[in-house]
Specification:
794 residues; alpha+beta; 8-stranded mixed β-sheet
Length: 794
């Protein structure tokens, strides 16, 4: 009894002293496997597209790229050497006993909360550091958290790779030497180019990725994350019927039942069996130096050409009836094993990375209609059959221009979202947001206490600036004689432009870049939602016709700088039952590559006309009138002119007018009105805001011999209100009239000459862009400065 105790203690002490050989693949081999796994995973793409890391896995932190941090973690997991005592797993034993006498199962170790010497670099730590990467205020602290995440995943990955080493799955601690692992390391470190090329060829072999169905519940509180199933799917029972080689097999199960280690050749485990071997082969050719007999494995799993070799005692043991003795493993065997096991190690490591960084949700932050001081957060899960349910807390963070992140008050919610589901939260935006970050912690599919997130950089804010709108085609001008006889002449001249045919144009601008077009994803026209039928407006970018919308993915145009919209309408308004629905587009909507949408309201001519009229009249008064005979012939000349125009605002009411839903008009002193435009300058010599009515034409009354009078009514984008002038930005009107009368004797009565009528010239208008509170709030939120500019209507 004392001897047994002494032996046990001595063996334990010896194991601790010699624990370094208990490492699986050598540390730097683990690093190479981890680096290749990064290259074959979605990590680089996910870091760029989901987490806002522009350089992806090439991001350098602390002098090392993310790719390298994964490799560093895979390498450091064996330091100090005592950690490797926890890198074993026998899939035929309960998990609590599967790690051997001196350590815990690798299934437990990779999810352990406290790993002691060397620090804790388990799956929960990787999850926590990912959450820190999403939410910590300081950019430097977040970068370190990402490096720690990568390192922790590398160390967790080490256990996956060890499950592809036969000794680590068959209770073979190989205290002093493991031939399989030694051979792989020999190939890796060889200065012989041929040997090194064989190692590189192993890494280059196609990887078998684990199937998505492998990530199932474990029902074990010490290893709750489904990544445990990458090592042990808990389905192999030590027989051929339950042994699997496919993508749903745990890696330890595949290795344990399909391969042998130096000290377990057909010993101690039900599989592989001696009966699975085929007829021996000699390699190299018989009677050549180094020729040896090998036995292939042809059944019970993957076929292996050199599965075991004939040892020196094979024939003697066989003659004594010991059919399981005399086999050995040599370099050809190890390399045939590696041809199957190394790609599995890489593939399952790749699967670990992809599983960790998965995420199937999206979110948007949009303005709230009618409330410029509120935003709505919408979180959604696509109706994809593989989409996972998310049950936990979503928290929205804002990153400012200095890279500092902070939670947004009110922008978090705890909920359960299933496939095709969505949830929303209202919040008050903060200023100067460079990126929105949504962090999630909770159950993700079958994984408890999972972490995922999404970073949405705002990027360069690009908007469309309208510079001009003009009529297409010439002016319509006509002179009509309405009455022409001996006593009267009425001549009218009319000038007008066709509002159905117009052209608006402008540019794309950004306060953050000199090439705003390179940041555009989509540019499109937005029409009145009540409209029906074919849209006949055309959008052109840099003179290239884009229909009603341009999408970068569908175009050869890389960086548009100019835009133009052409109208060719049958009618400016459509609609039924007396409801006017504009057929012209209301907005030009710009969406950047980062998903930021800015709507620019458009301004159009709605109508523009002018009239000029000249009248001349000679009329003899009837006898018996009060005037004496020498004043009974009235000779009158009158002239009048009318100039009138209407403007359509894309952000106006249903008819495009500057009126609130209540119909109320704003005083001229108001900071803003219902539309984002302010008329400037003058129209026909009258300043914007002029409202007046002077004079009248009632001067030729009674029996006066001569009289002359005039009148003028002016309304320049304004109207009279109860308390003073109010804005009426969509309309201007100028009318004038004059009258000259002479009374003569009846025998001298003749129609006077009135001259030709003159319709006023249709004026050019100017509007200054006036950004409304909702727009200013959006620009403030995005930290952008909208340009001040004017729009010319001609």
């Amino acid at each position: 009894m004392a001897y047994r105790f002494w032996f046990t203690v001595t063996a334990y002490a010896g194991l601790l002293m010699a624990v370094a050989p208990a490492e699986s693949y050598a540390p730097f081999t683990h690093g190479d496997l981890g680096a290749i796994a990064v290259d074959r995973s979605n990590l680089d793409t996910i870091l760029r597209s989901q987490y806002g890391v522009e350089s992806g896995a090439s991001l350098v932190i602390g002098g090392q790229a993310i790719r390298r941090w994964v490799a560093i973690g895979a390498t450091r997991e064996d330091s100090p050497p005592t950690r490797s005592l926890n890198h074993f797993h026998n899939p035929l034993l309960p998990w609590a006993d599967a790690g051997g006498l001196l350590g815990q199962s690798s299934v437990y170790w990779q999810q352990g909360p406290d790993q002691g010497a060397g620090g804790t670099w388990s799956w929960p730590v990787a999850r926590q550091r990912l959450y820190d990467f999403l939410t910590l205020p300081s950019p430097a602290a977040r970068e370190q958290a990402l490096a720690d995440t990568a390192r922790a995943l590398g160390q967790v990955m080490h256990m996956i790779q060890d499950a592809a080493s036969p000794a680590h799955t068959r209770d073979d601690p190989h205290l002093f030497h493991d031939g399989y692992e030694a051979r792989i390391e020999e190939l890796r470190t060889s200065t012989d180019s041929g040997l090194r090329a064989r190692f590189d060829a192993l890494l280059a072999r196609p990887s078998l990725l684990p199937g998505g169905g492998i990530f199932t519940l474990t029902d074990d509180p010490r290893a709750p994350a489904p990544i445990a199933k990458l090592i042990d799917s808990d389905s192999y029972r030590g027989n051929v019927a339950t042994y699997a080689t496919g993508a749903l097999a745990g890696l330890a199960e595949y290795t344990n039942g399909g391969y042998v280690s130096d000290d377990t050749i057909f010993l101690g485990f039900p599989l592989p069996r001696r009966e699975s071997l085929g007829a021996p082969i000699v390699d190299p050719e018989p009677n050549t130096p180094g020729a040896r007999r090998y036995f292939p494995k042809e059944r019970d799993g993957d076929s292996i050409t050199h599965f075991v070799a004939e040892g020196a005692l094979y024939e003697r043991l066989l003659s004594r009836g010991q059919s399981l003795g005399g086999f050995i493993l040599d370099d050809r065997v190890y390399e045939d094993y590696a041809a199957q096991l190394v790609p599995r190690a890489v593939g399952y490591s790749t699967g670990l990375l992809d599983y960790f960084f998965r995420g199937n949700f999206d979110f948007t932050v949009e303005p709230v209609n009618g409330d410029p001081d509120r935003r709505i957060l919408t979180i959604s899960i696509p109706p994809d059959p593989v989409a996972e349910t998310m049950d936990g807390t979503f928290a929205l963070y804002a990153e400012d221009r200095d890279g500092v992140r902070a939670p947004i008050p009110g922008a978090s919610l705890t909920t359960t979202l299933g496939r095709g589901g969505f949830a929303q939260a209202l919040f008050t935006p903060v200023a100067g947001v460079r990126a929105y970050v949504l962090a999630f912690r909770g159950s993700l599919g079958r994984e408890p206490d999972a972490v995922t997130g999404k970073v949405k950089p705002m990027g360069a804010v690009v908007l469309a600036v309208q510079a001009m709108v003009e009529f297409i085609g010439g002016e319509e001008r006509a002179t009509v004689t309405d009455v022409d006889n001996a006593s009267a002449l009425i001549v009218t001249e009319r000038r007008s432009r066709d509002e159905r045919r117009q052209r608006a144009s402008g540019t794309f601008v950004s306060s953050a870049t000199s090439e705003p077009g390179s940041h555009l994803k989509r540019v499109g026209l937005e029409f009145d939602s009540r409209g029906v039928g074919v849209r006949v407006a055309r959008l052109l970018l840099d003179d290239i016709d884009a229909g009603i919308a341009w999408n970068r993915d569908d175009s050869m145009l890389e960086s548009p700088s100019r835009w133009e919209i052409r109208l060719d309408l049958e009618e400016f308004y459509g609609g039924i039952a007396g409801v006017l629905v504009p057929n012209a587009p209301r907005f030009l909507v710009v969406e950047t590559l980062e998903g930021v949408k800015i709507k620019t309201p458009l301004i159009w001519w709605r109508s523009a006309t002018s009239l000029g009229e000249a009248r001349s009249l000679a009329e003899t008064a009837a006898s018996g009138t009060a005037c004496p005979p020498e004043l009974r012939c009235d000779e009158v000349v009158s002239r009048s002119a009318l100039l009138h125009g209407l403007v359509f605002f894309g952000d106006g009411n249903g008819e495009g007018r500057d009126a609130a839903s209540s119909g109320q008009r704003q005083p001229l002193s108001a900071v803003h009105t219902a539309v984002g435009f302010i008329p400037t300058g003058a129209v026909a010599g009258h300043a914007v805001g002029t409202v007046e009515q002077v004079g009248n034409l009632n001067c030729f009354a009674g029996c006066v011999q001569t009289a002359a009078c005039a009148t003028r009514t002016v309304s320049i984008f304004a109207d009279s209100g109860a308390e003073g002038p109010v804005w009426k930005k969509e309309e201007f009107s100028v009318s004038s009239g004059s009258l000259v009368g002479v009374r003569k004797p009846t025998n001298a009565c003749a129609r006077p000459s009135a001259g030709a009528p003159e319709a006023p010239e249709i004026p050019q208008l100017r509007f200054r862009r006036d950004y409304l509170p909702a727009e200013l709030s959006r620009f403030n939120e995005l930290g952008a400065t909208p340009p001040e500019h004017e729009i010319t209507l001609r």
